[in-house]
Design goal:
By secondary structure, the chain is of the alpha/beta class. It has nine helices and 15 strands. Strands 3, 4, 5, 6, 7, 14 and 15 form a seven-stranded mixed sheet that branches. Helix 1 crosses helix 9 and helix 2 packs across helix 7. The relative contact order is 0.16. Bound molecules: NADPH dihydro-nicotinamide-adenine-dinucleotide phosphate (NDP). NADPH dihydro-nicotinamide-adenine-dinucleotide phosphate (NDP) binds next to helix 1, helix 2 and helix 3. InterPro entries: Acrylyl-CoA_reductase_AcuI, ADH-like_C, ADH-like_N, ER, GroES-like_sf, NAD(P)-bd_dom_sf, Zn-ADH-like_protein. It holds the Pfam family ADH_zinc_N.
Length: about 325
């Protein structure tokens, strides 16, 4: 038996509890992993508190990230004892995820744990850090370099935002962080932000184009913030859009695209193809400063995850929460 967070729905009411589960209940898959660490992402918090639309079938073990040790494998690539990680692919949404002592999943969803990273560090990075790296790669695909000019990153106090600041600063970019929490000033500076601006920097003014201030941007908020970001990047700039912490809408005109040649690149970490995944994780393992990474992390046991979830949605958690499963 092992402990698992379990999301159930009965009569339209969603509940999440810690349960004892037997291995026979695990879903189909060719590799069984003893999970040592997972993490809490915004999506996990949504799943645990609201169920739909993140959870697509019940009962569901949440957790879009996992790290652990292979205990049984019918995939020739993996042997018992191998250290592995997995993020996305439907974990915690349509397939039981990482917030449990054991997981069973298709071997093609796994990656060997990148060299040099502990399981705790890998989950500290998790989907948030992986997504931040995909955003940085999107800016690079758009032709941006540190010489292009400053990059704006919002949701700076959260997981993706903090990871993006850290990665960009390490690559030599001038990073402008946007946060709704002025009390995080010292923390954001320590991650590498050169300038820290309040959230209303990205409030709409009603103009189709704003003063061009940034070479590029990474947006985790969506809605007005993303629209204003697109309207205020310089000619030829790129914006990577990955989140919806501020809503799903996008109240935008075509002006930034047809008058400034702005590129808006969507980022999906869940179905990211394996070669790009491996490239992103190799860069994360190589480029992230372990001391700065550590300053973003706090640890919690599995049982505490339920209480932390609403605080994530309220925007009260700083950085990344690593869940110690075993
Ligand atoms: P976190 O909760 O860690 O961070 C989100 C941050 O956004 C908060 O800390 C806060 O930062 C800011 N924020 C929260 N609510 C609002 C609001 N109403 N208006 C403006 N800013 C707000 O979440 P994650 O970093 O894990 O995820 C961020 C977003 O990215 C989520 O929407 C998530 O679903 C999405 N995401 C998408 C992925 C993909 O594959 N496309 C993968 C991973 C995440 P501050 O207080 O500093 O302003």
């Amino acid at each position: 038996m092992f402990e698992a967070l379990m999301i159930r729905r009965a009569d339209g009411v969603v509940t999440t509890r810690l349960e004892q589960v037997g291995p026979d209940a695990l879903p189909e898959g060719d590799v069984t992993v003893q999970v040592s660490h997972s993490s809490l992402n915004y999506k996990d918090a949504l799943a645990m508190t609201r169920g739909a639309p993140v959870v697509r079938r019940f009962p569901m073990v949440p957790g879009i990230d996992l790290a652990g040790r292979v205990v049984q494998s019918h995939d020739p690539v993996y042997q018992p004892g191998d250290q592995v990680i997995a993020t996305g692919w439907g974990l915690g949404e349509s397939h039981w995820g990482g917030l449990a002592g054991m997981a069973r999943l298709p071997g093609r969803w796994l990656l060997p744990r990148p060299g040099g990273l502990s399981a705790r560090q890998a989950m500290g990075i998790g989907t948030a850090g992986f997504t931040a790296m995909l955003c940085v790669m999107a800016l690079e695909d758009g032709g941006l370099t540190p010489a292009s000019g400053p990059i704006i990153v919002n949701g700076a106090g959260g997981g993706v935002g903090g990871m993006a600041i850290m990665l960009l600063a390490q690559l030599g970019y001038e990073v402008v962080a946007v946060t709704g929490r002025p009390q995080l000033h010292a923390y954001l500076t320590s991650l590498g932000a050169a300038e820290i601006l309040p959230r209303d920097t990205l409030s709409p003014t009603g103009k189709a184009l704003e003063t061009a201030r940034w070479a590029g941007g990474i947006d985790v908020v969506g809605n007005d913030a993303l629209a204003t970001m697109c309207a205020s990047v310089m000619h030829g700039g790129t914006v990577a859009a990955c989140g919806l912490a501020g809503g799903m809408n996008l109240p935008l005109t075509v002006a930034p695209f047809i008058l400034r040649n702005v590129r808006l690149q969507g980022i999906d970490s869940v179905m990211c193809p394996r070669p790009r995944r491996m490239a992103a994780w190799a860069r994360l393992a190589r480029d992230l400063d372990p001391t700065r990474l550590d300053s973003m992390l706090h640890d919690a046991p599995l049982a505490d995850a339920i209480g932390i979830a609403p605080r994530i949605l309220a925007g009260h958690i700083r950085g990344r929460t690593v869940i110690t499963v075993a």
